Amino acid sequence: MIVGIHQPHYLPWLRYIDKVARADVFVLLDDADYTKNGWQNRNKIKSAHGWMYLTVPVRDAFGKPILQVQIEGGQRWRDKHLMALRTNYARAPFFGRYFAMFEALYGRPWDSLVDLNIAILHDVLAAFEIRTRIVRSSELGVPGRRSERLVDICRRLGATAYLTGDYAAGNHLDLTLFEAQGIEVRRQGWRCVPYGQQHAHAGFVGDLSIVDLLFNEGPAGRGVLERSRVSAFPEAV
């Protein structure tokens, strides 16, 4: 069984969704520390000028676990993000099919950042018919930090393999801990292939939020994720 683990992201990018799709169980590390200027509360969409951030305003988040981070700004940020999606994707082939999903999401009052991110993730996965089991780390009761905790989470879930990002293994993973428990470490190996985007004059941008793929490619977007898997990279690290 393959397990992937990552912090919950806002409007997650394509690589993130591919990682979820390739796992049997995906753990949202919702009790990890919030990262300022990270991806927990922002992501990028395509605009006429190349790309732009959509950022969820948060209140007093420094030093807190993600699950305790509160959203501020009331209705204003939700209206702004919805308008940005409408402005930049209204002419996309599948805008009419999926925009109502985001209208419903942004029509709800949100206080918790992690609740917002999880709701978006579930809707996106349903749109692509990705049926990976989603688990929150805060519900597993597995203590610890860094590689030791990742290994213990994998053991709790009965993992035979852990799916990591392309660079994570070299940067911070202690591979010997996984090896000692008989858990194979697999590198994701993913490079975005070009697909149809709006604002062609601004050039292709590959590291955007999944909303870009959804509005432009619809259900066929899952094939884009799969074609972006780099077979030249070994599965095992």
Description:
With 237 residues, the protein is of the alpha/beta class. It has nine helices and nine strands. It has helices at 14-22, 76-89, 95-106, 113-127, 146-157, 168-171, 175-180, 210-217, 221-227, and strands spanning 2-6, 25-28, 42-47, 50-55, 58-59, 70-71, 133-136, 161-164, 184-187. The chain is globular and about 50 Å long. It starts with a strand and ends in a 10-residue tail after the last helix. 32% of the residues are buried.
Structural class: alpha/beta
Tally of helical segments = 9
Radius of gyration, in Å, reads 18 Å
Tell me how many strands there are.
9
How are the elements arranged and paired?
Blueprint: E1 2-6, H1 14-22, E2 25-28, E3 42-47, E4 50-55, E5 58-59, E6 70-71, H2 76-89, H3 95-106, H4 113-127, E7 133-136, H5 146-157, E8 161-164, H6 168-171, H7 175-180, E9 184-187, H8 210-217, H9 221-227
